[in-house]
Amino acid sequence: MPVSGRHHKWGLLSAVIDDNNDIHCVGSYSDPGPPVIPQSKVYFKYEYLSNYWSDNTPISVNVSGGGSDIDIDQQNNPHIAWRQKTIDTGPYEDSTMYTFFNGTTWSEPELVVNDPYKQKIAIDPYNRVHIIDREKLETGTKLVHYQKINDLWQGYIIDEAENLTSFPDLTSANGQLYLLYNKSDIPEITDIYISKYDIETGIEQESIFSILNDFHIYPNPFKTQTTIRFNTGKQQQIKISIYDLNGKHINTIENKEFPPGTYKLKWNGTEKNRKEVNAGLYLIRLQTGRRVITKPVEYVK
Fold first, then answer.
1. Among residues 39, 44, 104, 244, which one has the fewest Cβ atoms lying within 10 Å of its Cβ?
2. Are strands 141-149 and 152-161 parallel, antiparallel or unpaired?
3. Rounded to 5 degrees, what are φ and ψ at 207?
4. Are 97 and 109 in contact (CB under 8 A)?
5. CA 114, CA 129: separation in Å to the nearest integer?
6. CATH 2.120.10.10 region(s) of the chain?
7. CATH code 3.40.30.10 for 213-299
8. What is the CA angle 259-262-268, rounded to 5?
9. Radius of gyration (Cα) for the chain, nearest Å?
10. CATH second-level architecture of 9-209?
11. What digits encode the pLDDT tens for the residues 96-110?
12. pLDDT tens string 238-280
């Protein structure tokens, strides 16, 4: 095992076995010190034929929080999704992040969405990435399925509950995605649910389900006003809302039918009662039906 030093603290978070019986792992690493070294997310591998554990590769440093998962694509390359909760204030705060190994190098970590937890990842037979996470509502939580479409991480709300949705488990098999999870509308009363998604049908319908293109927020951070720019390729009902990191609804910028075209909307950092919000990070959510895109914006004074 790639473990050394009596102060080093390791944790295995998730693992997957490839066609060669090699084991790909994502774990956590920290040194309780002294001096204290903040927790890191790391990748390491067990090579079956040589009976060898690789050294660890840092995926993300100076983070806390669980919620890490790993899967492999058709070339046996690892893909990792994890919760990144920065210890010091930073651009991501508390986020679902994603990276992959292309056979030579690791990709730059990508922000999928802010303020989630319980991340799960699955790679389908077409090497398409599917990420599930659990996100806050004002009351309760929801499970959201993310795919990258038109260079944007776009989500689909699978389910939500007044109390919680928890412990999701995601896998790809026989041309379908299977999701197993707990759901509770009443505390201490929990049911188990299973949901499945037809991968081939989903690919065929991707252009229909792609809700928005060219989604930008600028300036970011902002002091007085920020612009929300997006493009929709078809006429559809679109709702643009602002939330804080606790899932509280702050304001609704627009909720109407938009014809095809490019649009620019403004937010001046106020709540629905026109009261100025506190400085900090907020989430701008564009939604049509159950499909969503969420991006962070920072308001400064």
1. 104
2. antiparallel
3. -65, -30
4. yes
5. 18
6. 9-209
7. no
8. 105
9. 20
10. 6 Propeller (2.120)
11. 999 999 999 999 999
12. 999 999 887 889 999 999 999 989 999 999 999 988 899 999 8
Domain with CATH 2.60.40.1930 in the chain: 213-299
- The tokens describing 257, both together, are 């039918």
**Token pair recorded at residue 137:** 């509502």
